[in-house]
Amino acid sequence: MATERETPAPGSAPSGARGGGETRLGRGSRPTPTGPHLLTGANVVLPTGTVKNGRLAIEGTRITGTPPAGAQVIDVTGHWLVPGFVDLHNHGGGGASFSGSAEDVLTAVRTHRAHGTTTLVASTVTDEMDLLVRQAGLLSELAEQGEIAGIHFEGPFISPCRKGAHSEGLLRDPDPAEVRKLIDAARGRAKMVTLATELPGGIDSVRLLAEHGVIAAIGHTDAGYEQTIEAIDAGATVATHLFNAMPALNHRAPGPVAALLEDERVTVELINDGVHLHPAALELAFRHAGADRVAFITDAMDAAGTGDGRYMLGPLEVEVSEGVARLVEGGSIAGSTLTLDRAFRRAVTVDKLSVEDTVTALSANPARLLGLSDRIGSLEPGKDADLVLLDADFELKGVMRQGEWVVVPQLP
């Protein structure tokens, strides 16, 4: 729990600690990966605002309201403590894909954890249905083990007019029976399906998803304004990477962008990498929807956390140059190489968003959408000890997941 810290007498325990043998780490020290911790001196971002010179107590896998006996007292003065990031839309990283083997999936998960994403939904890309069904089975096992938070199917139920980096020959209409096949294959671990709701079967598929507690996301769509409203009324609640792979906002044909931004039932995904969106477009979305209806995502592909080169995105070859991923054939942007720590830093330093609003978009909102707000998304007693430590320049310095350091901070 974060509280305003009183200045302790030299050599004394911090105010509110139990006494009882806590260990103070000296200059240049590294905390142990596990064990009770008491982090002190940081700007701690809570749902109610930022506590300056605050503290956060961790015991076991949870945040606790009382500093535990025997805790390591870690002075992180001048740093920021924010909740672990939650990514709703991510295709891979570290040179590996969520469409690959279990080892590939774990490689990608660990890559993003090292960049602050403590909860992640694994996204697939358009492929043959039997391959998607098989992958859903593999990913559901990893979800059951707690490695991922669930599965997002992006395609094949999308518009050929707005296919982006999806193989056109594998696209199909959103037949509810086919959608149900993927949900069943995921064994209760399907979290979201992106579909073009204007296609035949689209509205019925939205209703099916809503009935099964799966997020229906409107994306890769050529829908008009009225068609989009119909889909929202049927139960669609997310806009897949708003602005990208959908008709542009037009004064006579406002299209899906206007409908998605104006409806309070919809959360809009934004890829804040400086490539997918002009800063003015991001500002327009953020100001119109408000912080409570924005979820920053990566839409990352294999190259995230790795580097330039040739990669595969499903069956399509991608060239990454200077951090921008494009299809070798056709040149369409093919996901991103973004990590959420970079999205955070850009939001605060370039887009000039408040730290609190950025935390809402990176942690609280996606946690709410996933139905996990009781466990993650904010720094509160009883919740998982998932946190990110940032320095004064918003560079990542430490990551903790369920009480264990994934990135152990090196204290100055």
TrEMBL record:
Q: Does the keyword Nucleotide-binding apply?
A: no
Would you say which domain of life the source belongs to? Bacteria
On whether Ligase is a keyword of this UniProt record, the answer is no
> Region Disordered: which residues?
1-40
Q: For this protein, what is any one GO molecular function term?
A: N-acetylglucosamine-6-phosphate deacetylase activity
Gene3D superfamilies, per database record = Metal-dependent hydrolases, Urease, subunit C, domain 1
Which top-level enzyme class is recorded in the Swiss-Prot or TrEMBL entry?
hydrolase
Entry EC number(s): 3.5.1.25
Q: Which UniProt keywords apply?
A: Carbohydrate metabolism, Hydrolase, Metal-binding
- Pfam families reported in the protein's UniProt record: Amidohydro_1
- According to the entry, every stretch annotated as the Amidohydrolase-related domain falls at 81-406
Family membership noted in the UniProt record: Belongs to the metallo-dependent hydrolases superfamily. NagA family.
Q: What is this protein called?
A: N-acetylglucosamine-6-phosphate deacetylase
Native organism is: Streptomyces cyanogenus
Q: Gene behind this chain?
A: nagA
